[in-house]
Structure formats: C-alpha cells, structure tokens
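Hi C.,

You asked whether I'd gotten around to modeling the 181-residue construct. I have! Everything is below, sequence then structure, no commentary in between.
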Amino acid sequence: MQIRELLANFSIGAASGWDLFIALVFLIAVFIYGFFLGRNRMIILLLSSYFSFSIIQVFPWSRLMSLSWLGIGEDPSASLKILIFIAVILLFYFLIPRSILSSTLRIRKRGNASWLQLLLLSIVQVGLLAMVILSFLPVDNISNIGPIVKKVFVGPEAQFVWVILPILVLTLMRRKRKSED
C-alpha cells in the first residue's frame, strides 16, 4: 500500500510516479529480453506478435460469445483478449521454427547480432507488445494512465508508429557478414 501512495504522490516534471514506474519496467524488460534471446528468436517473436495481433483484430468474437458455456458476455474482456493474444504468440513462436518460414528467413539458431541490434529489436518488440496490450484495455482504465504513457502507447498515431517501427528496424537491420545464420 505504501508503494502505491509513493508512486501516486511522486512526480518529476510532467511525469508522475506511475509513468516513471512503467518506464522503468519497460527498460528492465527491454534489457532482460534482449540479453536472453538472440536475434533470430527475437525476430520469430516479433513475427508471432504481428500474426497474433492480426488474428485478434479479425477474431470472430460474436461466434465465441454464442458459446454460452464459456461465460463471455456481449464483448470479450480485456483480460481474455490479452490471454488469447499471448497464447497465439506462443503458438506461433513454437510453430515458426518448424515451418517453411524458418528456412525462408534463415532462422536456425539464436543468431549473432550486435548489442545495438539486440537493443533496437528489444525496444520495438516490447513497445509493440505494450501498445497492443494497452489497446485492449477499456477506456476507463486508459484514462487512469499518465499522459506520457498515453502519448507513447495509446491512440491511433501511437499504434501506427509501433506497428511500423519494428518493420523498419527489421528492414534496415543488416546481417553480420562473418557467418550465415
């Protein structure tokens, strides 16, 4: 309870304590994510995120709602959407390396990449995930988020940037010449 009060009362300039906390969690996630996964696994996870986001956007929720035994009301909850989104990411993450995409994209092992490439891939992946998860939340919950986080992750402009940015990073990223991954 004291941490909530501290974060609610703490601010630096326009950034509230919650904004700073979210930024800190974001940076820690980027660091850990980039450190433990290699370039190829990050690319697979990024592709899986795009596939999952596309599927969730066109998912026939009305058909799922007709199955009354699932207990889904008129509109699926944000937690259900997030759960299905993550489940589909994991499904594709394990299926892509065993598919024709792995040979097409030359994805075999962890892959060699510079720290800068790993950092950029981590940032765009975590940013994309944050944007997607925040886009599933109801408007009431988003209104409680700080203005900086809203500006970076919420809204049509932010969604456009976070959908395009990973594609640009992947397109502009060069492969190391020393070895064929």
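If it helps when you're writing up: The longest strand covers residues 11-12.

Thanks,
B.
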